[in-house]
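Hey, resending since the last one bounced:
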Amino acid sequence: MANNKFRGLGIALITPFAKDGSIDIAALDRLVEYQIKSGADFLCIMGTTAETPTLSADEKSMLKYHLVERVAGRVPLLMGCGGNNTAAVVHELETSNWDGIDGILSVCPYYNKPSQEGLYQHYAAIAKASPVPVVLYNVPGRTGVNMMAETTLRLARDFDNIVAIKEASGNISQMDDIIKNKPANFDVISGDDGITFPLITLGAVGVISVIGNALPAEFSRMVRLALKGEYNTSLSIHHKFAELFKLLFVDGNPAGVKAMLHEMGMIENTLRLPLVPTRLTTMERISTIVRELGY
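The structure tokens again:
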């Protein structure tokens, strides 16, 4: 059995902001309770969807401790910890307090476009320094570099504390290659809501979801049915959300899901620059879907 706690529906947690741009702790607490009560299996904090690049060091520290206290061990917490300066990531791993954090999600180094060997050495250094399990994160659309299946598998075989990969390459054959050849103690997690269903049918163990911020009960049902092999019912839920998957990303993430949560009355529709709210046409369509879903 794999030593990976991050299975089923994981939520790529947003950071709600008040109208003045400050962090809205009350809204954050409401969201966390809503997601846990609605069937979320784990929370992924301080990732891309949290607008982490726009958070100050003090804000990140505050959020980390607040969320550990609020969640209180009810579900595992996976925290973003990565970058394109390997030494800086290693230093953070060695000097931070990781109490209450069950693992780190570490993105492929972005912008400087390392080779496959550079990616391997980067993650090897992280694995050696990390006091908690490591989940790799491959998202070439954001980083400018794709970690090939061979590199992922090499890391999975060489380091027992590298327990999974969040795969968001969009390359189904690459993901299938990893699933087919991985060691037993390593899992593949979908990094894309829209391909979660097909990826689970191939052997993935869950998703780190954006849409789950707003619709955790429905999306967790789809994931659980798929994991149990009840594909027909799961597929019907997948198809029901097909338009929403596209709408939530057409103007960038998390603009779409923040617009949806705003329509549901849960948060202000506030983002930090360089991100801005969705266009009016997208907002109107999201609003219609929210009403059709009964929220």
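The first helix runs from residue 25 to 37.

Sorry for the duplicate.
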